[in-house]
Structure formats: structure tokens, C-alpha cells
Amino acid sequence: MKLSLWTYEGPPHVGAMRVATGMKGVHYVLHAPQGDTYADLLFTMIERRDHRPPVTYTTFQARDLGSDTAELFARACRDAYERYRPEALIVGASCTAELIQDDPGGLAEAIGLPIPVIPLELPSYQRKENFGADETFFQLVRHLAGPAERTDRVSANILGPTGLGFRHRDDIVEVTALLNEIGIDVNVVAPMGAAPSDLTRLAAAHFNVLLYPETGEAAARWLERTHGQPFTKTVPIGVGATRDFIEEAASLAGLPARADETRLRQPWYSASVDSTYLTGKRVFVFGDATHVAAAARIARDEMGFEVAGLGCYNREFARSIRALAKDYGVEAVISDDYLDVEEAIAALQPELILGTQMERHIGKRLGIPCAVISSPVHVQDFPARYSPQAGWEGANVIFDTWVHPLVMGLEEHLLTMFREDFEFHDQAGPSHHGGSAPRPAASPRDISEQAKTGEVIWLADAETELKKVPFFVRGKARRNTEAFAAERGVNEISIDTLYEAKAHYAR
Q1: CATH of the domain spanning 444-505, picked from 1.10.8.550, 2.60.120.200, 3.50.50.60, 3.90.550.10
Q2: Residue of 136, 232, 327, 371 with fewest CB within 10 Å of its CB?
């Protein structure tokens, strides 16, 4: 464990909260010290929910450690039941409370509440948020999903959507419509929107749609083993993946595949004259494994981009992402340290970043436009409007989301070209895609120190001239110039070096 300014995932009890918050009739009693209650803000502020998460904290303090914290927890369980009357209770400990080893599961069971009490064993110092959500949903399903007769009409469960999930609310609507077009009913959507009583009906479906493997795969595999329900392997994000998903779902249902693509506009737009200048743009993709795999396919096969690099932060999917990276001819970045990711992006100098809220900040510092494709995200990525990632409308939304930073970046470049004009002069740096204020000129001392280490440095006039190069080839111009200088043993890049390199590579 180490301190970090940013983190891609919270501790596993935050994942448990995501499940509880998405469901109805479930309450989570969390054994936690005062100060671990910050997680409420994630849902009420970032997700803009109209009610706080269904969580009761014991909130013990330092002085309580000398008394009976176990009794404190038992009292919190009884009070939560009396106040909220949930259908089921889940109990666990935060990372700090885990150290005092009070055994929340055993304590809650001893109380004898007249509802199911489901203990969570979430190793806070080995695993993280997505594991916590996956394990919590699995335990709920394992305890509550008993045998059931199949529905008369072919039906499917949609598994994986949770509270604080990236566009989960809208993806459910889109995927339900896809299934209904084929003739497949939706039996239960879980955990989001489901109550414990709904989980008892899971086995009535003919198969399961695994929409988000990070948060639903353990439950899907258990339902397959225990109740003979196969689950889909394709996540319908992107045009090609949506078509593949429809074929897969229809095959599992024994029905003909039907797809109404009348709402789909992305293919026409991506092939239009206006967007052809985007062809071949180098992109770096990073986020959770599910959205990274989908985004890489869309980028290469549907938008005509070049995937210059990709990776994920959830190590449980490292093997599959490494295999995917090999198919794209790049080396995967598997890390939950944003500094590793920033280093990779700075080295590759892509024209566009497809990432998380963290990569959006990195892009601002590096002057590279970024589109958000995955959690973790900020409040702006929980829009009030309908904005899915899955299905046909999801493909339209993705096209807009990815192209707009590039288009705004081009506009920023034009503004920068005329910045010295009296009408456009502005001391601030670019504002739309995050370029920072102009760098101060390197001092003679800095130049001397960098020359000693053999580092290639850019003189102030050369940096200014480089900014006149359109943003979508600026990274390539920088790389070529630095390579040209290094080959000739030049440590300082001036305007002359920049244009000599341009002439050299134009031959």
C-alpha cells in the first residue's frame, strides 16, 4: 500500500456500496471508524443521486477501541433493521476496521434478525473496488437465487450494472431494447434496480447477459454452474460488437437475429468527408478492461484510428488485456499508478487519449485532447440526458464524444495561430482541451544541466514555433525533431534544428 494523489479504484467496501446503492431493499452495515464515511459523497455528489446510499456506519472512534466495538456493531445492525426494514442485510468492515478483527458476519448472524444477513469477506489490503462489487453481487446471488422454472417466453437476465457505474443507467435501456427486438424478454436486471426478492427469480431466465464482467462475472459463472444458464461473452459497445452481441443472444435464445439499425448514424459520419482527416490518428486507450477492449476495436475498425498504446488498471484482467495488446502490436500498460500511465502517454505522444478522469487530467498537462470512456469519472460524466455507451445509440454517442475533442483542438490551434493578433491576444494558454500556459524559457543554468545529462531540450523560440504545427501532427513533429537532433548529437533544439528536421523527413 502507498499514498497516492489519485486512485483508479477505491477499497473493496466501496464496491459493496455500489451494489447496495444500485439495489432496492438492501441495507449495508459497515463496521468503520469515524472518517471512513466519505464514500457517501461519491454517490450523492458525483452521481448526483437524489438520496444517500443505504449504508449504516458504526463510526467508532479511538476511545471506543478500549471498550466493546463488537457490541457497537451489533447495535448498529439492530438499529438499521428497525429503522429501514430492508429485505436483506449485508455486513462487512472497512479497511481500517478490518484490522480489529471483530468478525461482522458472525456478530450479525448471532443477532437473529428475521431477514437474510449476508456477510462479506473483502480483503481490503489485497483487492480493490471492482472486486468488492463483483464479490458482493456474487454473495447476494449465491444466498438468494434458488431453483426456479423457466419463463414461458424466452428471457434473459442483465447482470453487472451498479451504482456509480459509467453510463450503466442508460446502457440498461439500450440493451433491453436490443433484446426485445429479437423477441427476448428481460427477466431481471441486477444488481441495479433489483430487490432481494428479484434475485430469487434469477434462475427463471434462459440465459444471462453479462454486461460488465468487472462487476458481474462471478455471479454469471455461478448461475451457469448451478442453474445451467449460459451467459454472453460479447459486450455490445460499438457497431461491430453490437452486431456480434445480437447474433450471440439470438443463438442462445434459439431465435433469428433481428437488428433495427435505423437509429445508427456513426458509420455514415465516420466515413464522411468531414471526418476523413481523422483517419490514422494515433490514440492511447486506458481504463477498465471491458471499456478498453471495446474502445480499441472501435478506434481501429470503425473510426480508422491507429491504436498506439493501451492498458487497464484492474489487474484481474491483465492477461486478457496483454493478449489484446499483442493483437494490436503494442505493449500493454497494466498499472493502477497514474504516473506510469502518464509516462507511457508522454513517450508515445498520441493525438488523442481515450481514458478515465485521470487521463483527462494527464491530457491537460501534456496538451493532448482526451475523451472519457471508463470509470473513474467526474460529475460531468453522469449527464442528465440519455447518453449510453452500449447499442446503436451508444455508438452514436461514442462517435460524438471522441471526435469533439479533436475538432475543438483544431479550433484551438487556429486561435493559437492568431493569438498575437490584437483581437485574439491572450496571455492564458489554450482552454478547451487543456493546454497549459506557455512554458517559461529555459534558463542558461537549466540548459547547462540538461546538456550534461545528454537530455535533448527545446529552446523557447523552438517551443513557440512547434505550437504553430497543427495539434494532430504536433506529437509526430516533436518526436521526429528529437530523433533528428539525437542522431546528430545536438542537445539544444532551436528553430533551425526544427526546420532542418522537417526538411530531412520531407525527402
Answers
A1: 1.10.8.550
A2: 327
